[in-house]
Design goal:
Helix content: 55-70%
Strand order of the largest sheet: 1-2
Structural class: mainly alpha
InterPro entries: BioY
Family: Belongs to the BioY family.
Membrane topology: Multi-pass membrane protein
Pfam families: BioY
Distance between the termini: 12 Å
Strand content: under 5%
Protein name: Biotin transporter
């Protein structure tokens, strides 16, 4: 990896970290700007660099640096919302294909929405796992979806669309670092 790519990865890790600190607590899963920052990272850096940024973000948070919406540290593993953070890595990789120069906007949206679906799946499944095995509160998948996904779908589709539009504008203005 080139030095300039490492700098871009570090910059986007910082943006994701700042996005996590802008939050609205609504139940066990707060509304944050992490997801749009992950999508923006992917749509600018491409699959490899954005997955690297998401991985670095995850590792920094697990070392105890409070970059997650709920803080940081190894204890984050038992947070019911930690699955969303785990989902950021494959989501960034998938959305990163939307950074390919010259692809039509509808494909950028397809990659963006696919990434959101990945984040939702990881988040809901991890929520069920933690609630049932660690916390000891039995939760089914339907109940988990009603708590962790359904209230956020419309917001995330809107934010995902706006993020994709913003990324396309930035790329047209010369900000495209993707190394696919």
């Amino acid at each position: 990896m080139k030095i300039k790519h490492m700098v871009y990865v570090a910059l986007f890790v910082a943006l994701i970290s700042v996005g996590a600190q802008i939050r609205i607590p609504v139940g066990p899963v707060p509304i944050t700007l992490q997801t749009p920052m992950i999508l923006l990272t992917a749509l600018i850096l491409g699959p490899k660099l954005s997955a690297a940024a998401a991985t670095v973000y995850l590792l920094i948070g697990l070392t105890g640096v409070p970059v997650f919406a709920g803080g940081g540290g190894i204890g984050s593993f038992i947070s019911p919302s930690f699955g969303f953070i785990l989902g950021f890595i494959p989501a960034a990789f998938v959305a990163g294909f939307g950074a390919k120069p010259g692809i039509p906007f509808y494909q950028v949206l397809l990659y963006t929405y696919s990434a959101l679906l990945i984040i939702f799946v990881f988040g809901a499944l991890y929520f069920v796992f933690i609630m049932n095995t660690v916390i000891g509160t039995p939760v089914g998948i339907i109940e988990a979806l009603m708590i962790t996904v359904i209230p956020f779908i419309i917001k995330d589709i809107i934010v995902g669309t706006l993020t994709a539009m913003f990324a396309v504008v930035l790329r047209r203005r010369g900000l495209n670092i993707s190394v696919n």
